[in-house]
Design the sequence.
């Protein structure tokens, strides 16, 4: 065993509080050390050269590098020892900077601690074995889950880069929530005008395969090679035959709620969500259809000129292989009707959500863009907006800011004034959060140019009186109770994770928070990654965000996928768990605790079942090591042997 | 309890009048309170200047016009100088005073009103303030002829006031200024931009 110890001075960063020559001297006396030296800047080119020379001249087989944190330069020195001809994992980094010189004022004590740390490193590297990773092939195709603006952007970016993309959408059309918006802040761009061309692009792109009315059923595999089963739900319409003529919808006798219009209008059991839907294909909702509920009707089948109706249609499983997955499942609006009894819980027809109001403002909405209140179709004069419904409200278990409510409320107040010039809007708010580019100016304009009156305070109660809704609130700036005789009340409902997000996360093996928003790999530095390799996040499924942020994140996720799939094969980290088959008792506690599904059962020829680690799935977290009762599963490079030896040396 | 739908609707014409004459937008006020933080007279007001702005925002204009705040403002303009939204707060208050004057709303602080009137008349007449005649007229107007009379010997001895009016180089120009701002002692509309720093 021939160990070399290199003690970095890091200029004065280390040398000021650690006498590196004394550390070198002490290292020379340690078991197995045949070479030790101190270098001024080891990470520099001559510094690395010195390591390589020492390896080659003295035939070193292991190296201890005492210097900065491994987070800083471990990769640098692994490469250096590899260039010197060693296995890169026969290097041990000892942190005598962040953990020692930077935090100790006294040079004697600092030096003693540095010597202890080096002794610990030497003990560990003595028990190190050479490690090498394996490679896995990469399937050059990507799956995008969710066809809102995030999914559309990610799919188009990847498809433009030449990657075959499959876009799966749960609903009958892509476009997501953005397709329902009238205009967008802070520029008042028409939402459809900027989104629908992108939707059409998706449909016509040679590299994109679009599957609507579909959900992910099962996910197998790992980064570079996922196998995904997609369930396409029966809609009783043959997609290839339907021309989108909408005759079926016209003739259908069964009324059904209009989901696209957030319940503001009425639709039919067989329908197309909206005229710009992509694909422009009808779908039948069995729960509302007379043919299915009463057993006889068949009108749509009779009138369809394309012979596209098939009542016998069944769910279909489409399987695909993908190298990477982008999750873009977006958001749903917070359902306020369950938790705000003082606002009527949905009893008053003229208390509506912001999305419902969005549809009333939209020219393509149920009222053709004329604002009419639901109860009597009258044009409202006094419109009250209430911010933070299901946001910043611990009492309903939603402490987070929805991050878009302030802005879309300002927008809706502006649009209200544009639609009804003699109207007066009141906005009850807690704080005005307008941090984006041009956002504060926009919400100021709502007040100065469009006369929206901002009242700081939360509304206590809403009750009807003589055709009006009495809104009882407070003006905390005036220190007074206030009331408004409103014609229409719009609730700025917050954003929640899309329904079923948690279930999808479990299929994909990615983490999610208590509100079912998916968790990014690192809040700052890995904003689109997840803790499962090859699965990326885009848009509001990761947390409430507005359109610009969503699109930016979608493009970032696409860039990550393009980078990943541009490689023919992937090298996996060798720091993975391994099972000692001879000692494994087959309890599978390791399989139960593994967050990545990396442990499987292996049948030995004698019939004994033992645990087996799938290298490409293992992330090296070490949970299984802790759970294993006879300590037969361990992390390569972090064996019990090594860790105990380190502790013993430190305690000596 | 304030009925906002009522106050906003009913207050709108007068608020618009104040906005037009002052050239300011009360809706631009952020309610940051910097005007109040810098106000030297706020301790004597019944509500501070930022509250006055908010009351105009929510249509409580009658309450503003009848308030001591509108009457006791010293016109020192510090609030206008420091407003981050560049609102001429003092201009708004000044306009409110004038509107209140015209509406005959300000009899609670009669002496103040008379002082202001006599002050401006005096400046218009002489080009600059002539304290002696101004104080005499003020005492006549308030019907308190002996007001501060005990101070007269002291003031005379210190040569703080003069019996004869001061000489101004270009009295005609001075008078033109007054003519241009409505031809009487009423405050003029402030410029659009407000008083900057």
Sequence:
């Amino acid at each position: 065993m021939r160990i070399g110890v290199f003690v970095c001075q890091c200029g004065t960063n280390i040398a000021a509080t650690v006498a590196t020559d004394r550390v070198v001297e002490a290292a020379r006396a340690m078991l197995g050390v045949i070479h030790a030296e101190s270098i001024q800047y080891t990470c520099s080119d001559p510094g690395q050269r010195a390591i390589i020379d020492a390896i080659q001249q003295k035939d070193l087989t292991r190296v201890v590098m005492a210097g900065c944190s491994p987070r800083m330069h471990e990769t640098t020195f692994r490469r250096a020892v590899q260039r010197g001809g060693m296995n890169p994992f026969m290097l041990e980094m000892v942190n005598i900077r962040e953990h020692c010189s930077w935090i100790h004022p006294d040079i004697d004590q600092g030096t003693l601690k540095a010597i202890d740390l080096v002794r610990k490193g030497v003990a560990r590297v003595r028990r190190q074995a050479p490690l090498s990773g394996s490679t896995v092939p990469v399937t050059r195709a990507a799956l995008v889950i969710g066809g809102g603006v995030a999914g559309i952007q990610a799919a188009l970016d990847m498809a433009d880069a030449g990657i075959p993309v499959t876009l799966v959408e749960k609903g009958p059309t892509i476009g997501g929530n953005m397709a329902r918006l009238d205009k967008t802040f802070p520029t008042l761009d028409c939402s459809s005008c900027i989104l629908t061309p992108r939707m059409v692009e998706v449909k016509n792109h040679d590299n994109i395969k679009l599957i609507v009315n579909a959900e992910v059923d099962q996910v197998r595999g790992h980064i570079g090679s996922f196998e995904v089963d997609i369930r396409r739900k029966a809609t009783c319409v043959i997609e290839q035959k339907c021309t989108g003529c909408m005759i079926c919808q016209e003739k259908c006798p069964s009324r059904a709620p209009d989901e696209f219009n957030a319940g503001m209008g009425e639709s039919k059991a067989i329908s197309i969500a909206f005229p710009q839907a992509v694909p422009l294909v009808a779908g039948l909702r069995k729960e509302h259809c007379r043919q299915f509920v009463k057993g006889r009707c068949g009108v749509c089948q009779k009138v369809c000129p394309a012979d596209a109706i098939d009542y016998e249609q069944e769910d279909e499983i489409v399987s695909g292989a993908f190298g990477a997955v982008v999750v873009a499942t977006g958001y749903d609006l917070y359902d306020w009707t369950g938790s705000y009894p003082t606002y009527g819980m949905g009893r008053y027809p003229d208390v509506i959500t912001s999305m419902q109001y969005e549809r009333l403002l939209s020219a393509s909405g149920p009222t053709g863009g004329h604002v009419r209140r639901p109860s009597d179709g009258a044009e409202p004069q006094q419109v009250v907006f209430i911010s933070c419904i299901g946001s910043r409200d611990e009492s309903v278990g939603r402490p987070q800011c929805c991050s878009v409510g302030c802005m879309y409320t300002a927008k809706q107040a502006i649009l209200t004034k544009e639609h009804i010039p003699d109207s007066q809007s009141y906005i009850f708010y807690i704080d005005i959060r307008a941090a984006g580019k041009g956002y504060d100016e926009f919400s100021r304009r709502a007040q100065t140019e469009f006369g929206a009156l901002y009242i700081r305070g939360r509304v206590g109660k809403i009750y009807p009186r003589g055709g009006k809704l009495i809104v009882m609130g407070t003006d905390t700036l005036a220190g007074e109770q206030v009331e408004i005789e409103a014609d229409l009340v719009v609730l700025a409902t917050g954003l929640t994770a899309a329904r079923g997000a948690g279930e999808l996360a479990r299929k994909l093996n990615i983490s999610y928070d208590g509100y079912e928003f998916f968790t990014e790999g690192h809040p700052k530095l890995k904003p689109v990654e997840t803790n499962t390799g090859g699965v990326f996040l885009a848009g509001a499924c990761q947390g409430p965000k507005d359109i610009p942020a969503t699109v930016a994140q979608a493009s970032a996720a696409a860039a990550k996928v393009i980078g990943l799939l541009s490689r023919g094969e992937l090298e996996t980290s060798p720091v993975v768990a391994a099972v000692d088959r001879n000692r494994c008792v087959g309890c599978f506690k390791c399989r139960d605790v593994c967050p990545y599904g990396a442990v499987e059962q292996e049948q030995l020829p004698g019939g004994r079942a033992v645990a087996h680690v799938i290298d490409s799935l293992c992330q090296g977290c070490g949970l299984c090591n802790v759970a294993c009762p006879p300590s037969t599963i361990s992390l390569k490079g972090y064996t019990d042997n090594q860790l105990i030896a380190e502790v013993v040396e430190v305690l000596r | 309890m304030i009925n906002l739908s009522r106050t906003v609707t009913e207050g709108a014409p007068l608020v618009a009048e104040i906005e037009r004459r002052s050239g300011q937008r009360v809706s631009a006020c952020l309610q940051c309170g910097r005007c109040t933080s810098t106000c030297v007279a706020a301790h004597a007001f019944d509500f501070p200047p930022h509250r006055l702005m908010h009351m105009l925002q929510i249509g409580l204009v009658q309450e503003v016009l009848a308030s001591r705040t509108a009457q006791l403002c010293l016109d020192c303009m510090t609030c206008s100088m420091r407003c981050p939204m560049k609102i001429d707060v003092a201009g708004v208050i000044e306009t409110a005073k004038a509107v209140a004057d015209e509406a005959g709303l300000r009899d609670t602080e009669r002496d103040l009103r008379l002082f202001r009137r006599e002050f401006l008349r005096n400046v218009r007449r002489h080009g600059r303030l002539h304290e002696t005649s101004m104080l005499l007229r003020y005492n006549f107007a308030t019907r308190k002829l002996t007001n501060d009379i005990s101070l007269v010997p002291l003031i005379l001895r210190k040569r703080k006031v003069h019996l004869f009016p001061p000489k101004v180089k270009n009295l005609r120009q001075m008078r033109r200024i007054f003519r241009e701002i409505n031809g009487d002692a009423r405050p003029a509309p402030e410029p659009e931009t407000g008083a900057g720093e």
User: Anything to note?
Assistant: The longest helix of chain B spans residues 4-22.
